[in-house]
Design brief:
single chain; alpha/beta; Rossmann fold; 2 domains; six-stranded parallel sheet; 19 helices; 12 strands; about 50% helix
């Protein structure tokens, strides 16, 4: 009889875990007999992945943070690659987090070259270090892009074959778009302001305090706000502790339903540059974005970067409509001023809203669900991998 297909998945942080869980659900719907193993977080655990270690210990950002955790990271890379090889999967799917997952992939390719490797949410070669695209061809057989401009970028940079499958936020549009009542709340006073300092400890360290000072300054000038701060479970206690002294205390949100409700009713936001900026744009929430790393890391990024914006919403729209503050400009005054200009019916607010309205077309939101498109691509590769592998001992 034909044995069930098996897929080994590796996700090293929260965003990849969410992506991996949705992929697993879609794969199971297409092939109920499919077997899974790998590394993931709480979302993938609910779908059946028994991760050998908590991925929270890999929640890092910036070169400095990576250097500090290097011994642990190297141990986890070796162990993950060894486990993937021992599992003998029909396909290995690495998800996002290239500093970890690509090192795993290279080791697997060296030890088990017949295992097909798929990179779901491939690295941002279009933003910096473009030479990575060509290097990926040695160990990545297929890249599944979540941003519409990425296949052209990978083709231009001589990377592996790349297919746009859609951004996972496309599957959450109904949860992000306001009802009539929520739209009225968005326009009502006091304005609901979202503070989104990131989902990593390093981001909290660098952004939480200036964001708090900024909303306090803005509220002093424009009247009281209803302030909400969505965060992830493992950071909730730290966020509560460090916001206790804010003049305007935020309501800390951890549950997804509460976060979605805040996005649907929010009038404006302060946000860390990242995926959340695209989420806010799809929800129709004008925002100010900020990004701050160690000074030397910022210097390296300025040298290596090939783009002039780090904001995902701006990149997908193809226009710098969301104001961005970097490094030394991430201060209360500039942040508060930019936020105040979005709370009223200004030209800046209207310009963002008009740009956000173009996202449905740009991102092909009317097409099949991204997880389903990705699952079909993974299954096609896994079936080719299964056909190419010799039968295991004892199989029939």
């Amino acid at each position: 009889m034909t044995r069930p297909l098996s897929v080994y998945l590796v996700a090293a942080e929260e965003s990849g875990d969410v992506l991996g869980a949705a992929l697993m659900r879609a794969l199971r719907a297409l092939d109920p007999d499919l077997r899974f193993a790998g590394v993931g977080g709480r979302n993938m655990a609910r779908e059946g992945i028994a991760s050998p270690f908590p991925i929270e210990e890999l929640s890092i950002v910036g070169i400095g943070a990576i250097a500090g955790k290097l011994p642990l990271i190297l141990r986890r890379i070796r162990a993950t690659a060894d486990a993937a090889v021992a599992a003998r999967p029909d396909a290995l799917v690495i998800i996002d987090s290239p500093d970890f997952t690509h090192r795993v992939a290279r080791k697997v390719r060296a030890a088990a070259p017949s295992v097909p490797i798929i990179n779901y949410a491939p690295p941002t070669v279009w933003a910096w270090r473009p030479w990575r695209a060509r290097a990926m061809r040695r160990y990545v057989d297929e890249a599944l892009a979540i941003l519409p401009f990425e296949p052209d970028a990978y083709r231009r940079l001589a990377g592996p074959h790349c297919t746009y499958v859609g951004h996972p936020l496309a599957e959450r549009i109904a949860a992000l778009r306001p009802s009539a009542d929520e739209a009225r709340r968005r326009a009502a006073d006091p304005p609901l302001v979202l503070v989104l300092p990131g989902s990593r400890n390093s981001e909290i360290s660098r952004l939480l305090a200036p964001f708090g000072a900024a909303v306090a300054q803005a509220a002093a000038q424009a009247g009281p706000f209803e302030l909400v701060l969505p965060t992830v479970p493992h950071l909730a206690e730290r966020v509560r502790r460090e916001t206790q002294g804010w003049p305007l205390r935020p309501r800390i949100l951890v549950e997804q339903a509460e976060k979605d409700a805040a996005f649907r009713a929010g009038r404006a936001a302060l946000a860390a540059s990242g995926t959340v900026t695209l989420e806010l744009a799809l929800a129709g929430v004008p925002m100010v974005a900020a990004y701050r790393v160690a000074a030397w890391e910022g210097w390296i990024f300025r040298i290596l970067a090939t783009i002039d914006t780090a904001n995902l919403a701006n990149l997908v729209i193809g226009e710098k409509v969301v104001p961005e503050l970097f490094q030394s400009n991430v201060r209360a005054g500039p942040l508060a001023g930019a936020l105040l200009r979005l709370l009223a019916a200004t030209g800046e607010r209207q310009r963002q809203l008009e740009a956000f309205a173009r996202l449905d077309r740009i991102m092909e939101l009317g097409a099949a669900a991204p997880s389903v498109r990705a699952a079909k691509a993974v299954l096609a590769v896994a079936r080719r991998g299964a056909a190419a592998l010799p039968p295991a001992a004892g199989s029939c």
